[in-house]
Every structure is written in C-alpha cells, then in structure tokens.
Design a protein that fits this description.
homodimer, 235 residues, mainly alpha, 66% helix, DNA-binding
Chain lengths: 235, 235
Amino acid sequence: MNASVTARELARASLTAAIKDAARSQVAEEGAARLSFRAVAREVGMVSSAVYRYFPTRDDLLTALIVDAYDALGSAVERAVDAVPPERIRARWRAFCGSVRNWAQGHPQEYGLIFGSPIPGYRAPADTIGPAARVPLALIDAVRLAWAAGTVDAPASDANRLPGLLQGQLSAVAAEFAPDLPASVVLRMVVVWTQLFGMVSFELFGQLVGTLEPADEFFAAAVDLMADFLGIEEQ
Amino acid sequence: MNASVTARELARASLTAAIKDAARSQVAEEGAARLSFRAVAREVGMVSSAVYRYFPTRDDLLTALIVDAYDALGSAVERAVDAVPPERIRARWRAFCGSVRNWAQGHPQEYGLIFGSPIPGYRAPADTIGPAARVPLALIDAVRLAWAAGTVDAPASDANRLPGLLQGQLSAVAAEFAPDLPASVVLRMVVVWTQLFGMVSFELFGQLVGTLEPADEFFAAAVDLMADFLGIEEQ
DNA sequence: GGGGTGCGAGAGCAGTGCTCGTGTTGTGGA
DNA sequence: TCCACAACACGAGCACTGCTCTCGCACCCC
C-alpha cells in the first residue's frame, strides 16, 4: 500500500533484475569468464558506469549469479525429491541424484560457476553458504528418511575405528542437521555426496568423452551402486 | 653434432620454455583467468607481439600449460605408485589416491586448469588426451594388479544386469587397456575414479569448508572405503 | 655472398573494468 | 507548494587486455 516507498525502489528492483537476467544469459552463452560488464550494460540499454550503481563491481554481479544458481539448483532438487512419496526410499534417492545431473546439464555454465574452479581472487561471501547448503540438506533428508525407515543397516565395520578428529567433524555435522545418524553413516553420506558431483563434473567438463559418453546408463548404474553403498534397500 | 640445425632452433626452444615458465608461474599465482599475454611478454623481456611467434593465441599458451599439467600430475602419480612394491596392493592404492590429492594441493591453479570448469570457447585439442590418460592408466594398473593377485572378488551382483550400451562401453575400455578385467570391475573402477576427483575438487574448491576441513582424515577414511568398494583386500 | 625467411619492435584497433565530474530527476521535509 | 538533497544516468578518460599489421634487422641455406 505504501506506494511512496516503492516509487524509485520499484525501478531499482526491476533494473537490478534486468541486469542480473542479462548477465545470466550472457554467462549461459559464453561462460563466466567472458561476462562483460559493458556488454551487460549495453543489453539493458545503459552506459556501463550506470550499472555500477547496482553492482559496485563485476565480482558482486558474479556473486549474485552464484547465489541464484545455488538457489535454482536447490529448488530443482527439492522439487524433484518431493515429487516422490517418502516411503519409496530408493526412488527418492534416484530422483535426488538425477535432478542434480539434469539441472547441471540444463545449466552447464551456471554449474561451472558454482562447482568449477573458483574465480581467482574471488572469495565467496557469507550469503552463498545458505543457498549452497540446500542440496546437502536434501541429501541428508533422503538418508535420514531411509535411516528412520530402518532400511539402512549401519555399517558397523568402519564405525569404531574412525580417527578422533574425523569422528568429531562427523558428529558435529550430525548434531546440527541429523542427530539420529551415526558418524559412520554420515561419513558414507559425504562420500556419496562428493561422488555424485564428481560424476556430474567429469561428464560436464568433458573428462568422459570417448569412453562412457553418453553417460546416462553409467550414471544410473553408479547411482544404484551408491544406494547399495549407503545401504538403501530396494523397494 | 649437427650444430647448424640448432642455432636458431635452440634459441626458439629456450624462449618457448621461458614463456611457458613465466605463464605457469602467473597461472599459479593469479589463476588461469588472469593469465595475461602482455604480462608474460613483459616478464620474458619481449614485446607482446613477439610472443605471438611462439604461441599464435592465448588459448594455445593455455593448451601448452594444460598438457604440462597433465604430464606433471601423471608423472607424480606414477612415481608415487611405483615407490610401493607391487605386492602391497592396498598400500599402492593409498599411494595412488594420496598422490593425486598431494599434487592437487601443491598446484591448485594447475589442477583447476585441467579439472575445473572448461575455459569458455576453448576445446581441448587432441594433444591433451595422451597426457590426460596417464592417471586413469595408473588407476587401471593398480586395479589390474589387485585383480591378477586374486584379491578382488568380482562383484557378480551387478555383473549381469548391466544395460547393453553400458556393457559395451565398459567392455570397450577393458578391451583396450585391461582385457582381463570384467565389465563389473571396470564399472566400479570408473565410479571410484570420479569419486577420487570429486573429493579432491570439493576440498580444493572450498565446498568442504566449515565441516570436514581439514580433510586429511576424511580423505584417508574415504580412500579405505573405496578400496573396500573395489574389493581390494587388506595387506 | 646474396635472397629468403624467421624474428623483435612498435603502432594501432577494439574491447575491458573502473573512476570521476556534470547535469538531470525523483522525493521527503519545511 | 516549493526546495534542497540524494539517487541517478551520462560521457570522458585511465590503464589494461588480446590481437593485427608493417617495418627493419639478423640469421641461414643455397
């Protein structure tokens, strides 16, 4: 109602969005390294110096895009996982892994922006860690559900001989996000997390060409092996 | 003997090396994205246009660095693996994984160059695939040795229900590099390969900060789990 | 010894990120 | 209602980039 609040601020908000959109499409086409402040300005019909009113530096623009990318990936994953009924544990697992891969293939440059080599001289600010946590949180959720359903048999083999520091790190993660999970399960969860993104990155960054490309079947088989590794039962 | 052959060519070779060295140190310090042709020229005491006699474009310089990086990583891994007697199969496995991580941590920017997001508009030429294959070949060697020693029990569970295309891809890889390995073992090998680089990348690219950092113990534990996954026995 | 060629220097083009001074326009307080 | 202030867009400009072209010099094969 307080329209006076939004007179100029509205214009600012819409221009900020327009700038981000132009930048995003430029990143999608040419990659983050070729993102040009001036080209973005041109596309939104401004002079480059005017854009600096909205993003004080090129890295700030990139940061905004990174946050958006994390959020886009996060919500894509959450949507895909939530579309599967909770009791179909292994299907949810497949949906989780598949949605990460799908999003990555649909947005390769944005994926590279968040999971590729970090931009030199660029340090991720604190605003990114919230959105960045959404995928691991979805992973934790999937594992917790399986654990609660009793379909995960705790691999006691590696439970008791974890070194002290690692035991503490894993317990800290568990304490914050999944108090019911034992450290040994958290360890396997992290392993599988890095595994998933290792595969997606290798496929996307061209490390698999000439051998396992197209990688759909490989990916599916690996996802199943990972489910076994986690102890997620069939059905 | 034929000194006349090498009069100018000698100078060319040494200058080429000097340019590469300057470029490499610049990449190591500032990252690939900030590699500047002109700055390299300045450092070797030439005018930028002169450098174009040696590398016709900036991307060609990068390609040379990429090949060198692959070779450096490859020989580091080979050296580390060969330092362990062949019969100590699990120790060799640990050496293999550890050497990849060590090299990556010692050369983060060069690692990012080859395993990070690809340079936009850059397509890896054929000269890279030879050096790039050295690490996977070392991995294959390690697994073959374990297989030959009979310490790997073939996971027959996933052997017979691989889909056709994947079966063919895995067999093709096996046929070329390790005819003795069954497809199911090759599959697990590729999984572990992507797993290894997934972990190293996540650690190096800052995806683990605040949870599992320092990651030495996590890495060691994961390497052991991967050995179990591969079926590499203790001792 | 000469002619062709590999080579370095320098100027120049189009582009980049970013800064600064100037004029314009929307807006909250008197 | 008017006005001062802040937010804003503009354009010039700086130092840098990758890359091209021309021009002389030095080497080297015939």
